[in-house]
Amino acid sequence: TVELDEDHGEHPGTIQLLNGDPLVAAVQYTGERLLLDEVRLVAPVIPRSKVVAVGRNYAAHAAEMGNDVPAEPMVFLKPNTAVIGSGEPIIYPQQTNAVDHEAELAVVIGRICKDVPVERVPEVVFGYTCGNDVSARDLQKSDGQWGRAKGFDTFCPLGPWVVTHLSIAEASDLQIRSTVTRDGRTIERQSSTTAHMVHGIAELVSFVSSFTTLLPGDVILTGTPEGVGRIEPGDTVHVEIEGIGTLSNPVVATDG
Amino acid sequence: TVELDEDHGEHPGTIQLLNGDPLVAAVQYTGERLLLDEVRLVAPVIPRSKVVAVGRNYAAHAAEMGNDVPAEPMVFLKPNTAVIGSGEPIIYPQQTNAVDHEAELAVVIGRICKDVPVERVPEVVFGYTCGNDVSARDLQKSDGQWGRAKGFDTFCPLGPWVVTHLSIAEASDLQIRSTVTRDGRTIERQSSTTAHMVHGIAELVSFVSSFTTLLPGDVILTGTPEGVGRIEPGDTVHVEIEGIGTLSNPVVATDG
User: Fold this and answer.
1) Distance from C-alpha of B100 to C-alpha of B230, rounded to nearest angstrom
2) For B237-251, b where at least 16 C-beta lie within 10 A, e where not — what string?
3) Is the Cβ–Cβ distance between B171 and B202 less than 8 Å?
4) Nearest CA to B102 among B127, B67, B65, B68?
5) N or C: which end of chain B has fewer CB within 10 A?
6) For B65, how many CA atoms within 13 A lie in the half-sphere containing its CB?
7) Which of A52, A47, A53, A58 is nearest to A200 (CA)?
């Protein structure tokens, strides 16, 4: 459990250790507390089944890609083997010359569920984290199906941690930004709010659960706002969501 | 371990029980042996990560769907939550009116691997089973991405067991058929050979491993031959592959 400076708690900037997996059963605190600056966080969740991603869920992003907004959520899958945590490198594959970041709010599922009505979605959401739906645009276009273009190892950064106290209403009104640091300068790329989703959080979880059983730890990526852009080896890409934190990943070439 | 009549062994039509998971470590036989007719087999493998499927990998099937054969394998993912075994029902979703069977040779991965050269693919293949890439054609078309249309619960029958003794050359020259039993009559739908794959088994495994880490138990579906067709509640669909066995699944409506 992380206690942040901005939470104004008694132990700012620390992390409290716990035993067990909160997605499986109750956990116990070990009593140990470490400085957040002195630990290396790994991905806060590795889905045991799937990352379900939703395309074209912000109208301005659909427009910048030349697409219409679909009437129903447009769903694709990213493999759990693509997940990395904050600080871990995005490895730029040799097969592509056009890799984009896509900042997204990630919903972490807490309970096995199927056919969840919209009004009961709060019962199955464990929490929220930042996600980056890294995408090889050239392969996305040439392959048609996005299994490879969005499924490369390291193409699903999640983190830095899972925030568990937000209501769906609160998570549906958060600033979401991405920035890229290149040659020492940090440039803003995406800046929007989760309020601009076409299909909202509860609707998305309900929709996804209407065709596939969701398992604890499964993740739903809720789409990206406008402003997506290229990343290159040497860059560091940051996804920042208000009230959650910042997910930062350096980009490295395959050979290094 | 299953001993079949056609193997001419000492215990035809029986199944030998073992402890442990052969994908994880060595196994021990319990010494117990049961009649195959008296057991209910479950899915022989639930991928811990993913089912990677390949589209348009038989030229005659690509043609019957009005598509060209892609230069590189066209990859999409099916979730592990869609896997069922032989005998288990395919549940016909309410969201579709056009569900097709697709008989496919399924490759079961035995070792964690990445960037496997074609010549080393035999080292990472655990075995082969029959697969059915059940597909909702209407949603496939309207969604564009196939995550939902091919990702419904029960849309990935695998089984009846994993055959582990076939070489890649042997697995690349097997008769593959599908039949549908409706109103007491069984009609042939697909009849081809795995020799007709555009991209062969070794090439597919190598290609998939070039972008994603494969885990033991992950499955690669190698595409379907021509002759796909509709299934309806009340049908039973059979996928039969020479030297492997027959995967049979009844189709039932959502409400029962």
Assistant:
1) 4
2) bbbbbeebbebbbeb
3) no
4) B65
5) C
6) 23
7) A58
CATH 3.90.850.10 boundaries in chain B: 40-253
Residues in chain A closer than 8 A to B95 (CB atoms): 210-211
Tokens of A122: 């709060």
Q: How far is A26 from chain B (nearest CA, A)?
A: 24
ipTM of the complex: 0.93
- Number of residues that this document lists for chain B: 256
- In A57-212, where do the E strands start and end? 74-78, 83-84, 90-92, 99-101, 103-109, 125-132, 135-136, 156-163, 175-182, 185-193
Answer for the pair B247, B160: CB distance below 8 angstroms, yes or no. Answer: yes
CB A98 within 8 A of CB A137: yes
Q: How far is B73 from chain A (nearest CA, A)?
A: 8
**Cβ–Cβ under 8 Å, residues B137 and B100:** yes
Task: Find chain B residues with C-beta within 8 A of A144's C-beta.
Answer: 70, 74
| Beta bridge partners of residue B241, listed in sequence order | B176, B245
Instruction: Give start-end residues of each CATH 3.90.850.10 domain in chain A.
Output: 41-253
Q: How far apart are CA B177 and CA B240, in angstroms?
A: 5
Backbone phi, then psi, for A158, in 5-degree steps? -135, 140
Query: CATH class for domain A41-253?
Result: alpha beta
The tokens for A192 are 């929007």
- DSSP label at residue B12: T
Cβ atoms of B35 and B13 within 8 Å: the answer is: yes
Q: Does B210 contact A95 at a Cβ distance shorter than 8 Å?
A: yes
Does residue A231 contact residue A61 with C-beta atoms inside 8 Å? no
**In contact, B179 and B188? CB cutoff 8 Å:** yes
Question: What fold is seen in the domain B40-253?
Answer: Fumarylacetoacetate hydrolase; domain 2 (3.90.850)
How would DSSP label each residue in B56-76?
S-BHHHHHHTT-PPPSS-EEE
Residue A56 neighbours by CB under 8 Å, 6+ apart: A62, A65, A67, A68, A69, A70, A74, A198, A223
Sign of CA dihedral A207, A209, A214, A217: positive
Question: How many angstroms separate the CA atoms of B221 and B226, rounded?
Answer: 15
Q: Which of B51, B92, B114, B145 to mutate to test the interface with A (most CBs of A within 10 A)?
A: B145
Going residue by residue through chain B (256 aa), what tens digit of pLDDT does each one get?
888 877 778 888 888 888 888 888 888 889 899 999 899 888 999 898 999 999 999 999 999 999 999 999 999 999 999 999 999 999 999 999 999 999 999 999 999 999 999 999 999 999 999 999 999 999 999 999 999 999 999 999 999 999 999 999 999 999 999 999 999 999 999 999 999 999 999 999 999 999 999 999 999 999 999 999 999 999 999 999 999 999 999 999 997 4
> Which of these, A251, A254, A247, A255, lies nearest to A232 by C-alpha position?
A251
